[in-house]
UniProtKB/TrEMBL annotation:
Coiled-coil blocks: none
Chief location of this protein within or outside the cell: membrane
The protein, known as: Uncharacterized protein
Species the sequence originates in: Rotaria socialis
Record field: transmembrane: 12-31, 95-117, 137-162, 174-198, 204-223, 272-300, 312-334, 341-359, 365-388, 400-423, 435-456
């Protein structure tokens, strides 16, 4: 009986390794994300002890207009002076700003290095390395950034997913993960809210460390060496790993030029589509950062002044609605046969509406009502990898994903710093400035995806002789493969094109 149980457990880990990794990582990041509430509560509780000697506060108090003070008084916690919430907002966002600055340069450099040396180091090693150094703060932020961070692990898992699925199934595959991660996040967020109220934060961070160690152990034990084989095109002679004369400088050039129309023989249509997709993805990231980075402070600020339990409730309801809405959205788009560009256009329209709605919200029920729009706002993030994989040669995908991951890392590093800083200097005058800015930024990818839609319809692709045969990489006995990032939509796992025995 014990042998059968161990065999079943081992088979389960081999068959659903990526899903297990993603579930554990989702729980970990939910636990780690509570650090913002911890920092805010620390400053809020230290307000009475330090505020008399803080000149910034006196400037803040004297420049507050009457309307803002009246709105702050709506907070339920009347034991805390009205301007204390605003002061804690500024101090918390400033702390996150300096933390992000401390980790910015090494994160960018290590993302490039690990992406460049993924084949030599092995995907298992790089994946484990990024998980070892996820506990941070100031000096710790610098040290953890030397491992590359979550973007590199997403890059590795994205490669595995791309290699393990047929091209026609990648769109649904890259949207599939969202519901699974969101469902896990819903349960975790609800439990975290109650736990913080009754037990505090310390146990959560020990639990986060334990979850991360479990993930590392799962990767080390159950990811087999076959999964480290690089992506190869059977008919392509451009990506020959047996050619040791190719230098890292040449590979860097290939990474930087992978989207250039002059660098390859790809058609005009594919070159235009790739560039438009890349630029649209860039502005989508900026808009999402403008919305998401200061959103915790927005919830903690007037007129909501939410507690940890309130935030836990909201995150749970948000996750459930995201899951259900993503399923309905994808089923609808599949039934109506919408293309990727059309889906992204609709997604950005919903994003703009959502940002404007939340920016004008004054009551908690308005934030909850806005969640019914949210599931349709972020398809661009998940579909980008699917779109570019359809327009590239199989041997170009590794370089393209490295380049996109590097851009995403740079945007996240400087975007987190910039939007935290922007919120800290504008919150005294406009609590919703960054949300309105997010809506404005969302217009740019909307326009670009409209152009992409027209390009894919009107421009012929006679010169498109892309190699379609590809030798995929599969984790042995692994049928469903899931994409690591995003909270979009759900589809059932598609069959892989080949299985390695």
């Amino acid at each position: 009986m014990r042998i059968r149980f161990r065999f079943s457990l081992r088979h389960l880990f081999h068959a659903y390794l990526v899903e297990i990794i993603l579930c554990l990582q989702t729980i970990y990041y939910c636990l780690a994300s509570s650090i913002g509430q911890y920092i805010y509560r620390y400053y809020l509780e230290s307000y009475s002890e330090t505020i008399d000697f803080n000149s910034d506060f006196w400037f803040l108090s004297n420049t507050f207009n009457t309307t803002i003070k009246d709105k702050i008084d709506q907070c339920n916690d009347l034991s805390v002076p009205a301007p204390a919430h605003q002061w804690a907002q500024q101090k918390s966002s400033n702390l996150f700003f300096y933390q992000t600055v401390a980790s910015s340069i090494p994160t960018i450099v290590m993302t490039y290095i690990l992406g460049l040396y993924t084949h030599q180091l092995g995907r298992k090693f790089v994946l484990i390395l990024t998980m070892f150094a996820d506990h941070w703060w100031h000096i710790a932020a610098f040290l953890s950034s030397l491992a590359g961070g979550g973007n590199v692990s997403s890059f590795i898992l994205n490669l595995i997913i791309t290699d393990s699925t047929e091209e026609s199934e990648r769109t649904s595959k890259f949207l599939h993960t969202g519901a699974m991660c969101t469902g896990i996040g819903a349960i975790t967020s609800l439990l975290i809210g109650f736990w913080i109220e009754y037990r505090g934060f310390l146990d959560l961070y020990w639990a986060a460390l334990f979850i991360q160690l479990m993930t590392i152990l799962a990767v080390y034990v159950y990811m087999r060496p076959q999964s480290l084989t690089p992506v190869l095109s059977i008919n392509s002679h451009c990506h020959n790993h047996s050619n040791n004369r190719t230098t890292k400088y040449d590979q860097l050039i290939h990474i930087c030029m992978v989207f250039s129309p002059r660098h390859t023989n790809r058609s005009r249509k594919r070159s235009i589509c790739l560039i438009i997709t890349l630029v649209a993805f860039t502005f989508h990231c900026l808009a999402s950062l403008s919305f998401g980075v200061p959103f915790l402070w927005f919830q903690l600020n007037y007129p909501f002044c939410w507690s940890a339990t309130d935030i836990g409730y909201y995150n749970t309801v948000s996750s459930i609605i995201w899951t259900v809405g993503s399923i309905v959205g994808l089923k609808f788009f599949t039934y109506t046969r919408f293309g990727d560009a059309a889906i992204c256009c609709l997604s950005h329209i919903f994003f703009i509406i959502s940002a404007l709605w939340v920016a004008q919200a004054s009551y908690s029920w308005q934030l909850y009502l806005g969640l019914f729009i949210a599931p349709f706002t972020s398809y661009q993030g998940s579909l980008t990898y699917s779109i570019i994989s359809k327009w590239l040669e199989p041997n170009e995908i590794n370089n393209a994903y490295t380049f996109v991951t590097e851009i995403n890392t740079i945007l996240n590093v400087f975007g987190n710093s910039f939007f935290n800083y922007l919120y800290s200097i504008t919150v005294s005058y406009s609590r919703n400035f960054t949300l309105i800015l997010a809506a404005v930024l969302g217009v740019i990818p909307l326009v670009l995806n409209c152009i992409l839609y027209r390009v894919t319809i009107r421009i012929s692709d006679e010169s498109d002789h892309r190699i379609t045969e590809c030798k995929p990489i599969l984790i042995p006995n692994h049928m469903p493969m899931i994409e690591p990032a995003g909270i979009e939509a759900v589809r059932f796992p598609a069959k892989t094109s080949k299985r390695i025995q």
